[in-house]
Amino acid sequence: MIIVLFGKPGAGKGTQAPLLANDLDVPTLATGDVLRSAVRGGTTLGLEAKGYMDRGELVPDKVILGIVAEELGQPQYAKGVILDGVVRTVPQAEGLERMLKVLGRKVDAVLAFDIDNDEIVRRLSGRTVCENCQTPYTGREVGSVCDKCGGALMRRKDDEPEAIRTRLRVYDEQTAPVLDWYRRNGGWVVVVDAVGPVEEITKRTLEALQR
Ligand code: AMP
Asked: Along the chain (211 residues), what's the average pLDDT of each consecutive run of 10 residues?
């Protein structure tokens, strides 16, 4: 089962991905997490990606498709994957489709989390994430402790107001057209209302997948 989680930054993809993964028993692949870990490790990938990420811009498609190709070749994704934060441009959708075709696979569903910009700004400006395992939290102070791994919570640089504005603009210009691309190319697009308690949204998503 290959599922693409789609939505604006702050729509809840990173919160829902592990919950859905647990229920559907497939691993997640979050390109943002791969990139942040590369930035922390000071690798060539990290150095290349950092500026784009801090400004809230997209990392070039070639870099992203390289990450996805390398990851999807690993045995843990043999039975499926929940893609969190990729696909974000039409060339990424095309590249992923080419890649999966070679493997005799395809995207089974695109889960589009629907939310308006006011709610996004409210969420992202109150968000902290664990510096260790990346779990996102709403309404928790910087420096408090992650429930999952005990790491310290921090604010992401791209959750600053200027970067949030850029990310929303980038979403409208480059990411929103991806949904039409999937619709035109026979993809199964499932729209989920992404406002409400976390468990409720997981439930809605799983129900929508069963239809
Ligand atoms: P995320 O954690 O998904 O919000 O991603 C954080 C940042 O990583 C984004 O704002 C981009 O700079 C970069 N990034 C993550 N995934 C992608 C992608 N599929 N395409 C381009 N840039 C990405």
From this structure: 95 94 96 94 96 94 96 92 97 96 93 95 91 90 96 93 93 96 92 96 94 79
Do 2 and 105 touch, CB atoms closer than 8 A? yes
For the whole model, what pTM was predicted?
Answer: 0.90
15 membership: H or E segment, kind and range: helix 13-24
Ligand 1 atom at minimal distance to the Cα of residue 31: 16
Instruction: Produce one character per residue of 75-106: b if its CB has 16 or more CB atoms within 10 Å, e if not.
Output: eebeeebbbbbbbbbbbbbebbbeeeeeeebe
**If you measure from the C-alpha of residue 68 to the centroid of ligand 1, how many angstroms do you get, rounded to a whole number?**
12
Q: Which residue, chain included where needed, has tokens 């729209």?
A: 191
142 CA distance to ligand 1 centroid (A)? 22
For helices 31-41 and 61-72, angle between their N-to-C axes, nearest 10 degrees: 100
**Rounded to the nearest 10 degrees, what angle do helices 44-55 and 161-170 cross at?**
100
